[in-house]
């Protein structure tokens, strides 16, 4: 159970300027350049991180490649790798509060959510993939009697993982845990405004026994360090979570370099569809609010388009507005806060610009829409709800990535499907209905990687997460994630 006094002990802990983590130790950037780290809680600079360039990335890749070829991890026994990964998970749990507070100071996520979504989720993810190591078998092909066809699964080599700022540990683990379980070496490029918890995680990885060079973390600007990683001729795979614009660049970099495999988890504009026959309207309201406002809307699967059947739309919207006014926006390290801070001043300004544009386009601002708590120096925004939104408005088409909800009315099932699919994205969706047949029809008809029924959110590591259309390719989580980090090798043996 979280205690405020424990959080307060860590809240103002001095954080020394951070170096890169390459091999098994802290390494200064070759240029000596640093980036200031300011907290969205109060807008103040509280430490700095190394600003890596191409030379630093090259060193990290060289070290990772050497570790892979040496075989200290790639050729280790399944039992040894499992033991070390489980120890890694133990250490994360032991240091969970420290990791969570570090992350909150970096990106502003409310602590009640951060503790479970970040370190605890990460530990669970590592344990899950640790258990797969000695349970994924090769295959024997159905060949003629004079031939033995064996299909082996092998680690690929050096994996580059480019991690977003909203959930660096959780989303990071979705990439490094299966990559490590498969026997690869990894280089994590942390986001400029969410590096601290990943750097601390690297120390715990070494403490757990992961060999030198297998787990590396670089920090710095995406345009420099991220590009260098994606362009590097000796990186075998890039796994990226972030914006579509950057995802396109990474694909380009791969084509201009060594044709490395690229897996992208990009943005979303997820439809949350509520029909008149929803089994529990109050539960639908509560979960719809959580689906858009948790982490101040800075969630890739956020249910930012609420599509409501006309007959209940007004009642549902009024309930939404009433409940939203009870949400407490404030210091994310205060246990009484329901919503924390927006991650940066730039992101806050983008959110407010979308509000202004929506009003100009004719949407009805029902609640919120303003910056609050200015006196703190931090970046806070009211939960914001628009009604009278048409799906062609910019606020209904663009991924805002803030606490902004668009309410759209639909006539019936067919109209809901049309609206839901009228977007370039296809990451997540939800349907609320008591009609089982309708639920199945909607699941089949909505173009999205995950469709929730009578809930919003609630998936775990056992099921894949991935998108269609411009929400990306490949899948994080589940056994399917291992496919991204293994090669198939055929042995064709004449008997």
Q: Describe it for me?
A:
The protein has 495 residues and is α/β, with parallel strands linked by helices. The protein has two domains: 4-266 and 472-492, Aldehyde Dehydrogenase, Chain A, domain 1; 271-461, Aldehyde Dehydrogenase, Chain A, domain 2, CATH 3.40.309. The chain is 39% helix and 20% strand. It is built from 15 helices and 21 strands. The strands form six sheets. The chain has a seven-stranded mixed sheet, sandwiched between helices. Helix 4 (96-107) packs antiparallel against helix 7 (196-208) and helix 10 (281-293) packs across helix 11. It is globular and about 70 Å long. The model has no long low-confidence stretch (mean pLDDT 98).
Uncertain spans, ≥5 residues at pLDDT below 50? none
Rg, please? 23 Å
**Proportion of β residues?**
15-25%
- The CATH topology name of the largest domain reads Aldehyde Dehydrogenase, Chain A, domain 1
Structure in a nutshell:
By secondary structure, the chain is of the alpha/beta class.
Write the layout of secondary structure elements.
Elements: H1 4-11, E1 20-22, E2 25-27, E3 34-38, E4 45-50, H2 54-70, H3 78-94, H4 96-107, H5 111-132, E5 139-141, E6 147-155, E7 158-162, H6 168-181, E8 185-189, H7 196-208, E9 215-218, H8 222-231, E10 237-241, H9 244-256, E11 261-265, E12 271-274, H10 281-293, E13 305-309, H11 310-324, H12 345-360, E14 364-367, E15 371-372, E16 380-381, E17 384-387, H13 394-397, E18 404-410, H14 413-421, E19 428-432, H15 436-445, E20 450-453, E21 486-494
Parallel strand pairs: 7-8, 7-10, 8-9, 10-11, 12-13, 12-19, 13-18, 17-18, 19-20
Antiparallel strand pairs: 1-2, 3-4, 5-6, 6-21, 14-17, 15-16
